[in-house]
Amino acid sequence: MSDATYGQLLELAAAVSLAASIVMLWRRSLEAIVRTLAIQAAAIAATSLLIGLHDALVAEIVIAGIILAVKAVLIPWLLMRLLRTTTDQRVAEPALNTAASLVIAAVLALGAFAATTSLVQLAGGEEGRLLPVGFAIVLIAYFGLVTRRNALTQIVGFLQLENGIALVALLASTGGSLLVELGTALDLLLAVLVLQVLIVRMQSKLGGLDLDHLQELRD
């Protein structure tokens, strides 16, 4: 693989990852949001695979397989199965409307690119040039966590946040730790399984996934 092709494919994978974050803010269907999360995880797996193939790093190739299997396939499958058990198939009205959310997401992305200029210059290379994308995903994920009030979208927000952190780690240190990534993937899987049980209980007791219903438990 030539350096030019490698750079173009790496840019494409990063662009898909960032676009997925924007789409998750835009869509109101929970099923569409979960599917977009899977696409984002697959794009990050592709990033790890490209780095591994270009730099001949076996660990990065294995990490790509772990990300693909756990974050792009298994966890979205668990979320889709959970979604089929609930009557809430759409996101409750967020704190901001869609247009305002997209504008703020664009501002956050531009802010991430502006704030990481020195970091990009320090890191150098094709990978370092794309570091702002990971930071933009993290900021957009935080924004989604603040404005969305559905329990399932909160889970998706945390997973999106982890995706952004994983992308930064992959791009900042070509040659990530296989044990760290494996431990992170297993921790995420366990967290999703536990939250799945809690959401099922929330659905049965409160009749929905809107977090505002939890205020009823104060009494």
Folded structure, characterized:
The protein has one domain (3-218). It is 79% helix and 0% strand. It contains 9 helices and no strands. It is globular, with a radius of gyration of 18 Å. The protein is mainly alpha-helical and 219 residues long.
Helix content range of the residues, please?
Answer: over 70%
Query: How many domain regions?
Result: 1
Quaternary: single chain
What is the gyration radius calculated from CA atoms? Answer: 18 Å
Bin the strand percentage. Answer: under 5%
Secondary-structure element order, N to C:
HHHHHHHHH
Mean pLDDT: 80
Structural features:
mainly alpha, globular, 9 helices, 219 residues
Walk me through the topology.
Layout: H1 3-26, H2 30-55, H3 58-83, H4 98-115, H5 117-123, H6 125-129, H7 131-147, H8 151-172, H9 178-206
Helix pairs in contact: 1-2, 1-7, 2-3, 2-8, 3-9, 4-7, 7-8, 8-9
In brief, what are we looking at here?
The protein is mostly helical and 219 residues long. Helix content is 79%, strand content 0%.
